[in-house]
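Re: the 589-residue chain
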Amino acid sequence: MKRQLGSRSGRGRRALGLMAAGLLLVGVLPGTASAAPPDPRIGLGAGWLDAQSAISNLEHLAHRDKPAGFVDPANPGNGAYYASDLAFGGKYAFLGNYNGFNIVDVSKPADPALVTSVVCPGGQGDLSVHGNLLFMSVEESRGRVDCGTNPNVGIRFQGIRVFDIRDVLNPVQVAAVQLCRGSHTHTVVTDPKDANNIYVYVSGTTSVRPATTMEGCNNNPATGENPSRWRIDVIKVPVAAPAQAAVVNQPRLFVDSETGRIDGLQNGPQTPRHPSGSTWSPTPNTNACHDITAYPEIGLAAGACQGNGILIDISDPANPRRIDEVSDPNFAYWHSATFNNDGTKVIFTDEWGGGSGARCRDTDQPEWGANAIFDIVDRKMQFASYYKLPVPQTLQENCVAHNGSLIPVPGRDIMMQAWYQGGISVFDFTDSANPHEIAYFDRGPVNADRLLLGGFWSAYWYNGNLYGNEIARGLDVFKLTPSQHLSRAEIQAASQVQLGQFNAQGQPKVTWTPSFAVARAHYDQLVRAKAIGHPLESQVDKFLERAEEFAADGKRSAAVAQLQAISNKLGAPEHQALKRSILDLAESL
């Protein structure tokens, strides 16, 4: 059964609209006219490389302009050189670009260093990394198999490129899998039962290429013979022999289970005009997925599929199977998805305006161009709330929900997210019905007089730091700073999580090694929530302090005794995460 979200009540919509405009009076006593100070993101001065900026609860460690060959100094809005998505492997960040990709050494986050630039045009250029392999999406018909820059000669290429990156100074293309709709994005999916092969789910959203350029491609309707739409492509890649990469399945994830129609989900807007009164842009027509985020450890993926959000069983990676779907009359284009770490929630984004429009104006409701947060209960999605950047942007700034990732703070669900020229927003959705912002960074418009496409395409956490790829400006690196929203211990506990690689559409299961930072993080959360009273609050603090001192002095038995003693006092249900972290720490010493 297809399920659809409803709109908020008029009263709720009005309150959220005031919040988005920065006008909601919080904590104001009756009879007073005082309000919170204006958000410093409002009114930032414009400029390409010299715009004003605003920052809260982050430290800006570094910025690197896009390198030569990936920017047009005479026209920073030249789409042939847009920066796009990010991937990470080891000490390197891999920066996608419409003209190819760049590899940057981020082992010193405050001093990132360009290692290699690879010119290879093809549009978007989204990247993923698996071991020594780099995958690249190619969508535009100007792409050539040999990465050549003259679109008028050579063999056309639209699909997935595979590079060997063992020598980061000289990446070598080892495979190029042609596809009927190219690759707008892709997802690398591992099989927990088979380390010898990986799978790439490909989302092609452009027009179907003619059969003269690839046999079998066609633009048949859903009732016609094997149409090239209403499907995804699954590529199997032998890790030891990537040149053998090939399509092994083209699953029809949108089939109506009752009628068998392959176009069985949403095939256009639910109303003639968008709820804002404007025309639909893009149109929510589910004939492809835009992004699919895979979480192999829990056997699930979430597909943001233009007109629907879908939940997918990937326990057999070669044969993904849809198990749930939702729609929303506010959503113009289901764009991307992010699970929380325990797989009990999923966030979908709506790229209303396609990324090129000003969609964070003070007249835009927070249901439009926003995140929709769902709880996952018995493998079904239940709507919880919306989250949108809580400050208006100008008519000169393209702004809408875009790519982000989790920040692994134990005990909490925290995400950082790019909003194009709305900047970066870090928000907490531990309470899925009440998400709230805890940090941000923003720049003024690229141009003061007209909208030039710019801003953060993606913003991801990787091994203790936050990275953003700016479409027109380049790479930025940040770190979290302690605040009333996030303690030093919580930041330290997150930073102790070290990944070997990270891809935006491939979520790893995060675990935390027992440490004093992890225990302190849980303690700080109880104190912040006023869920631990006196004298227990001060007792836990003191016992943890003593135990850490004993451990530092090599007095293991004394440290363990302190931890076990205080754990015995933690009997309330709300204290169990703290108690478990303390006992795990005692066992690890």
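The radius of gyration is 24 Å.
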